[in-house]
């Protein structure tokens, strides 16, 4: 019972933290409140989590603490040393790390489920009709899990690739590039990703599901790059805020995957607050979100 | 498609859906009156909060069998990146707000 209680505390501190962050006087305290809740949620997961099916506790503690130590030291150093003017690009980089984290979780979970389910299958040479039955079985028990894994992977990788490009643009390593048919290509790419995803989820083809998964992953990364590439440097904070809410949604899919309330509330809170924040930022700059996203190429004429 | 119907008839799904919808409204409500000077720190703070994805990474890492090197390597990377997101996010936000506090103190003194 201790673990759900810790998760509840985590969720509450996130809400209070966000609330306090939106008032000048309490903002700094709000950040600390959220950090405190996060620490509780992380420690509780490490020591109290057990698999709902097998009841096993977590192992590989050496790896976990090693990762936490490396990430913690590098993260603190980077955040302490960064110039005041370079902070937005740092935020973008950290946002990208979060997106990559969500992407990696999806990859490992996908691999785990494919290996687990295909181990119980017989080899390839079965008649067509029979293989159709087996196809349904590969993820048949857990279509919900597959949906959550794939969607988390797509959003996570778009956010990761987009944030890295935004980071590169803000520190001047990547120049704005836009070519005439860019919007058409982006929309086309997004449609291809959507079609492939629907096919993967609906048909769950046993033989090609792995290839399809990694194809969607590659296309999503490509989409993240192309999506941010043409957007002008001045609009970058708005884009980072948007990608920030994307990563929030990716984290929420993780919450679905593990039935984990604190990931769910934290992720969705950031997802919705981030979306509103994006719109507010656009308003503060006298731009509409549509103009930022689509009007980047020759759209300045129409702006305002 | 039985599994999909199961998904929609399972009470657990609705519990999660309720949390999702309430969280959406809460997220909108909580920050809807933020002054524009706080936009960047708030974005940064929200960025740190979605680092909660680290919990998923810890679970992946902690459940990987010790001979599954792919899962171990990817899980380890996920833990490192997730921690970067959380720790870096909170520290950067704190520094931004520190600067902010100093500025407002100075302006108060001047007044």
- Major sheet description of chain A: none
The low-confidence parts of chain B are: none
Work out the strand percent of chain B.
under 5%
Number of strands of chain B: 0
The helix tally of chain A amounts to 11
**Multimerization state:** heterodimer
Membrane topology (chain B): Multi-pass membrane protein
GO cellular component, one term (chain B): plasma membrane
InterPro entries (chain B): NADP_transhyd_a_C
EC number (chain B): 7.1.1.1
What are the SSEs and their pairings?
The complex is a heterodimer of chains A (304) and B (111).
Chain A: H1 2-21, H2 27-48, H3 61-81, H4 87-119, H5 128-140, H6 143-170, H7 182-203, H8 209-228, H9 236-258, H10 261-284, H11 289-293
Helix pairs in contact in A: 1-2, 1-10, 4-6, 4-9, 6-8, 6-9, 7-8, 9-10
Chain B: H1 2-9, H2 11-31, H3 39-49, H4 54-63, H5 69-110
Describe it for me?
- The complex is a heterodimer of chains A (304) and B (111).
- In chain A, helix 4 (87-119) runs parallel beside helix 9 (236-258), helix 6 (143-170) runs parallel beside helix 8 (209-228) and helix 9 packs antiparallel against helix 10 (261-284).
- With 304 residues, chain A is mainly α.
- Chain A has one domain (84-304).
- In chain A, 47% of the residues are buried.
- Chain A has 11 helices and no strands.
- Chain A has helices at 2-21, 27-48, 61-81, 87-119, 128-140, 143-170, 182-203, 209-228, 236-258, 261-284, 289-293.
- The longest helix of chain A has 33 residues, at 87-119.
- The termini of chain A are far apart.
- Chain A is globular and about 55 Å long.
- By secondary structure, chain B is mainly α.
- Chain B is 83% helix and 0% strand.
- Chain B contains 5 helices and no strands.
- Chain B has helices at 2-9, 11-31, 39-49, 54-63, 69-110.
- In chain B, helix 3 (39-49) runs antiparallel to helix 5 (69-110).
- Chains A and B meet through helix 1, helix 2, helix 3, helix 4 and helix 9 of A and helix 1, helix 2, helix 3, helix 4 and helix 5 of B.
